[in-house]
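Contributing new complexes? Match this layout with F7E.
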Amino acid sequence: MKTSLVTGATGQDGSYLVRKLLSEGRRVCAMLRCSSTPHTARLADLTPGVQANGSELIYVLGDLGDSASLLRILEEYRPEEVYNLAAQSDVRRSFDVPEYTGEIDALGALRLLEGIRQTGLASTTRYYQASTSELFGEVREKPQRETTPFAPRSPYAIAKLYAYWTTVNYREAYGVFACNGILFNHESPMRGENFVTRKITRGATRIRLGLQDKLRMGNLDARRDWGHAEDYVEGMYLMLQQSTPDDYILATGEEHSAREFLELVFSRLDFQLEWEGSGVNERGIDRKSGKTVVEIDPTFFRPTEVNYLCGDATKAREKLQWRARHSFDDLIDDMLRHDMALAESER
Ligand code: NAP
Ligand code: F7E
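Output block (do not edit by hand):
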């Protein structure tokens, strides 16, 4: 049985990837970090130990800031695959904690790769690095491809740039089967509530049920290529099943503004949203109730914004036979179904 180590197992992608790997019959070492409160809610329905199909789930304690814990895990379990998903992944917050973001997102990847080398796993362990469309930042071409130059615009993206090149370097210098998945935004009902799509589906459903008055939003004109996380973890898995390591973009090729996402969600919930004012004074008013349901709050602006991201996943389509199966509408449906049920449970 192959062993796969997943860092960031408690996050959005981790929760889908752990399930995918268990369904493939793997022994899955899901890495958790120390926490004073439970943080395994996304994995709550999984029981550690041997599963019905013979696969196995094991929780291991480790932190990307702590080499000793990583070395211990690598030595003890000697995984054939390492998926490095752990990160301080919030772009806005990375401006508040830039040093910590670099420590975990940049040096964390180095610690893991160096750990693979030092434990003698360089020729046997395959490594996936959670790289990001944020690397393209102030984009140099549209859509972005694997060959598009990087132009990062946040401490998060700059840290991920270091991790990207470290991954390439360990592939070239030590022959590690190391791949970068350059993933464009992907969302789901498991998305953290601080990210724009989930903030909107969660907030709008709560407003619909009278649990919340309004949403306070940042730059609604930013455009993103939003896919579904379930499809994207499939792509991560495929990258590590190839005969040679490589770097791939995963994206839908379709872009929307945060405003379009918000308008679609509110209209699905039967609001009649109309905009008044401009800039920080812009407001979204529900014509049916006359109430202000959206306001602009500059707290959510970023010192440097990434205005536009849209990816070309031709390489992944041709070499991995990967494609995004969920449409934009499917994504919104899935998130709204989940968040409406959640809001109803809060009434
Ligand atoms: P997420 O929901 O924010 O999950 C991040 C995970 O990292 C959580 O499990 C978190 O643990 C863990 N973590 C944070 N700091 C850690 C540390 N010091 N040591 C060990 N674990 C730590 O992120 P996601 O959306 O699933 O994304 C997964 C990865 O893909 C991240 O690296 C992200 O930067 C990258 N990425 C995401 C997207 C996207 O659109 N989702 C696109 C491109 C790339 P706790 O639960 O304890 O906080
Ligand atoms: O913002 C705008 C915001 O925080 C998307 C991470 O997974 O994807 C994610 O990073 C856009 C930005 O995601 C609000 O300014 C408007 O332009 O959902 P987000 P992100 O920054 O794109 C990439 C690929 C990653 O790698 C990251 O780890 O939406 N926006 N109003 C807002 N964003 C937030 N969070 N909150 C708002 O109120």
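Reviewers usually confirm one structural detail per submission. For this one: The CA atoms of residues 143 and 158 lie 21 Å apart.
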